[in-house]
Design a protein that fits this description.
Blueprint lengths: L59 H11 L8 H8 L10 H14 L42 H4 L28 H21 L6 H15 L3 H8 L17 H4 L39 H10 L3 H8 L85 H5 L20 H6 L2 H4 L10 H6 L65 H4 L23 E4 L5 E5 L2 H14 L6 E5 L4 H14 L4 E10 L7 E9 L3 E2 L6 E2 H4 L5 E3 L2 H10 L4 E7 L7 H10 L5 E3 L2 H10 L3 E11 L10 H15 E4 L1
Parallel strand pairs: 2-3, 2-4, 4-11, 5-9, 9-10
Antiparallel strand pairs: 1-12, 4-10, 5-8, 5-11, 6-7
Helix pairs in contact: 5-6, 9-10, 16-22, 17-21
Bound molecules: ligand LNDFFVEH.
Length: 766
């Protein structure tokens, strides 16, 4: 029986056919490929018998085991095995193979071990069936490397990497987005070859003393695992792979070989996406601030949360969520550029906890006479605000940062007293209490505030000294404690019931500052919220030193809202004839229509402080000649209601409130004094310009005292009275109300009249 590369047990051995690699200098006639040494049979000698080994015979049993186990076809002993045999006392298995295995083989030969022969250095296992070149084994060599098949499925199914990698290039094919880093050729290939050995020995022992490079590679391997990349990192953490199986332990790679086939150039820097969860850095000493840099992101959160396992720790952890912010609470000390939002707090492996808002300053700290101190992005309490959420005080909402208005105002926004007037919320007693009297009882009227009321609560100093706050949705003060001083009733003003003269029952309204009283319940008050106050917008009570001041109708600051730009320009022209427009009078274009005008007015009133609002423009005259001026004693939403077979039903008749808002009597009086030729009376606000005779008759029948119609007055009035600002409306007649005749409109004449009107309304104060 002969053992050769063919059939075991054959009585007729085949003639030896050396199999050499092309250009293998070590291959000779007596040496078979891949190192198996066969001595030629002596001519005439007896066939080699099993169990008998001569001095020149190869060791039969180990070779047989090797062939059976590793080489089903029985003629390729396998490179690893040969290297193991060759390196028992020389090159160590799993070591820095290409670098020193030749020396190991030479050493073995010197010790009389001729069985091993050099094996060309093989930088990587090649998946291709072709012979890629010296040192690159063929594809069937993979059979000698079972580790290939033991790799995670993700690697085995890496598309073009049918075997291991895409070719002799170390990087393999381009890695698709999202493909784990372990699929990359370099690491995968080296891991295949050396993974088991290194894990078993080299990695644990850190390599041999004669292989410092490998020791460094092992250290590097550990670091790389901690850096948490790809499948290898998952294996280190024993996290399941996407296929549901635990990932294998990571493999190391000898750094000295890593760049063998890598394109020259600097190595791609390793990115650290997420710090590993198992990475525990040594805790800082108690009381000593951790000097390690704290990058923004999850690492800090995880680490900070772990440093403190109790609730206080979590709170402390929250306080460090922003970079460069140390232990200060970012709510109390917002870093520059901090953006409002929720804080994600990781704690003890849970996915996410709905965090508290970072947004500071949910409290209005305005003192009497203050302008408030809100900035864009600050929180302002509102009921039913969709921006409010769990963890947010009921009185907080986030104002958008850097909205156009804020930009225009230099990023500044002042607090105002609920200018929009949010709708009543069911079940909210405070909202119910705030409902306008006119909407709650028969005969109720509009929330027209009388002049006396508006000026009553100012301590005689006018409106300018107080920031009004509506304290709805406040938590009642705890029993036994007095109402905290943050809740301040200002004025207790009365609101009209809808009658244009403002008469009727009144509804006292508590005006409170917002925010919980920290003294009433410090535990609920939350962290201190300190926001540097804005420079107050000074309310000018007189002319500037050395300058001139336009005083419109005696009000210190007046907002004029027009529908279109030509009207605005006409107003400005009139003001300039007096003394030049300055910031005591602001003229805004609010758009055509009541809704747009109301929105614009509300926005501007929320941004700046005014003492009076005027709706101004041109309009259709009812009994007033073109070019004339009308002063509204009230603004009436003439078509706000319901149509019916019995005729039009107004809002008042429907019981939904009032469609009439009285103008400020003082303002009306002042305007009438300044414009002796103007006609005073109700001015109608319509959504559709009256254009038929029937429509005109019907309108006049319902509003016999009306002197003109426009399209914006009621909207401006609504915003003004909800902001607690005096309201008035003046219009220059451009056309008669009646059958539509656009050619009869005298817009230019009306605009000229508008300019003259404002020139008369304004007085120059030196
Ligand atoms: O076309 C122009 O050059 C021009 C210049 C300035 C203003 C206009 C307007 O169309 C203004 C529309 C504005 O005027 C009010 N208005 C004028 N006449 C009536 C009317 O008969 N019925 C209702 N409104 C009228 C209204 O407030 C519009 O907003 C054009």
């Amino acid at each position: 029986m002969v053992e050769d590369g063919g059939h075991v047990g054959s009585a007729h051995p085949r003639p030896h056919r050396p199999r050499c690699r092309p250009g293998d200098p070590a291959a000779g006639p007596d040496r078979r490929a891949y190192g198996a040494v066969r001595r030629p049979q002596r001519p005439g000698g007896p066939p080699a018998r099993r169990g008998r080994r001569g001095g020149d015979d190869p060791p039969a049993r180990p070779a047989r085991r090797l062939l059976r186990r590793r080489h089903p076809r029985g003629h390729r002993p396998g490179r690893d095995r040969l290297l193991q045999r060759a390196g028992r006392r020389g090159a160590r298995p799993g070591g820095a193979l290409p670098a020193d295995h030749h020396a190991a083989v030479r050493a073995a030969g010197a010790r009389g071990r001729p069985r091993a022969r050099p094996v060309p250095a093989r930088p990587a296992v090649c998946a291709g069936p072709h012979h890629a070149g010296p040192g690159v084994p063929r594809v069937h060599d993979r059979r000698a490397h079972r580790r290939v098949h033991a790799l995670p499925g993700r690697l085995r199914h890496a598309g073009a990497l049918a075997g291991v990698r895409g070719g002799p290039q170390r990087r393999g094919p381009p890695r698709p987005a999202g493909r784990p880093g372990a699929v990359r050729g370099g690491r995968a290939g080296l891991g295949l070859r050396y993974g088991r050995r290194r894990r078993g020995r080299a990695a644990r022992r850190g390599g041999g003393a004669d292989r410092p490079g490998l020791a460094a590679a092992a250290v590097d391997d550990r670091l790389r695992v901690r850096n948490g990349r790809g499948t290898a990192a998952a294996a280190a953490r024993r996290l399941p792979t996407p296929r549901g199986r635990p990932a294998r332990a990571p493999t190391a790679r000898p750094q000295g070989r890593q760049g063998a086939l890598r394109p020259p150039g600097p190595r791609e820097p390793r990115r650290q996406r997420h710090p590993p969860r198992r990475l525990r850095l040594p805790d800082p000493l108690p009381g000593v601030r951790d000097p390690r840099p704290r990058p923004a992101g999850r690492a800090v959160r995880v680490e900070a949360a772990r440093h403190h396992g109790d609730g206080a720790g979590r709170r402390r952890a929250r306080s460090r969520l922003l970079p460069g912010h140390g232990r200060r609470h970012h709510a109390a000390h917002p870093p520059p550029g901090a953006v409002a939002g929720r804080v994600r707090v990781r704690r003890h492996g849970r996915r996410r906890r709905r965090g508290r808002r970072v947004q500071p300053a949910g409290r209005c700290r305005a003192l009497p006479g203050d302008r408030g101190s809100e900035r864009p992005g600050q929180a302002v309490g509102r009921c039913g605000d969709p921006g409010a959420g769990p963890g947010t005080g009921t009185r907080e909402r986030l104002r958008p940062l850097r909205d156009p208005a804020d930009v225009r105002l230099g990023g500044r926004r002042r607090a105002r007293a609920d200018p929009v007037g949010r709708p009543a919320r069911p079940g909210c007693p405070r909202h119910a209490a705030r409902a306008w009297a006119g909407t709650r009882r028969a005969g109720g009227g509009p929330p027209a505030r009388g002049t006396a009321e508006r000026f009553a609560g100012r301590g005689g100093a006018g409106r300018g000294g107080t920031v009004r706050r509506r304290g709805h949705h406040r938590r009642p003060p705890p029993t036994g404690r007095r109402r905290h001083p943050w809740s301040t009733r200002v004025g207790g003003g009365a609101y009209g019931t809808g009658r244009p003269d403002g008469a009727g029952p009144t509804l006292a309204r508590a005006v409170t500052r917002c925010g919980p009283d920290p003294r009433a319940d410090p535990a609920r008050a939350g962290p201190a919220r300190r926001v540097p106050p804005l420079p107050a917008v000074r309310h000018r009570s007189g002319p500037r030193p050395g300058g001139r001041c336009v005083n419109l109708l005696g009000y210190r600051r007046v907002l004029v809202v027009t529908a279109v730009e030509p009207e605005r320009q006409a107003v400005l022209r009139g003001l300039r004839t007096v003394g030049g427009a300055d910031d005591t009078v602001v003229v805004e274009v609010g758009g055509v229509g009541s809704a747009s005008a109301a929105a614009t007015t509300a926005r501007v009133l929320a941004q700046q402080r005014f003492d009076a609002v005027l709706s101004a423009g041109i309009g259709g005259g009812i009994g007033v000649a073109i070019g004339g001026t009308v002063i509204a004693t009230s603004s009436v939403a003439a078509d706000l209601g319901a149509d019916s077979p019995d005729g039009f039903l107004s809002l008042d008749e429907l019981g939904f409130g009032t469609a009439t808002i009285a103008a400020d009597p003082d303002l009306v009086a002042a305007a009438a004094k300044a414009l002796p030729n103007a006609v005073s009376g109700p001015v109608l606000t319509v959504s559709t310009v009256t254009g038929t005779l029937a429509g005109t008759r019907d309108l006049i029948a319902r509003h016999p005292r009306a002197v003109a119609e426009g399209m914006e007055g009621f909207g401006v009035a609504t915003a003004a009275i909800q902001a607690g600002v005096a309201f008035g409306e003046v219009r220059a007649v451009s056309n008669p109300v009646g059958p539509r005749d656009r050619a009869a409109w005298r817009i230019g004449e009306a605009l000229e009249g508008l300019s003259e009107t404002f020139a008369c309304l304004a007085k120059l104060t030196l």
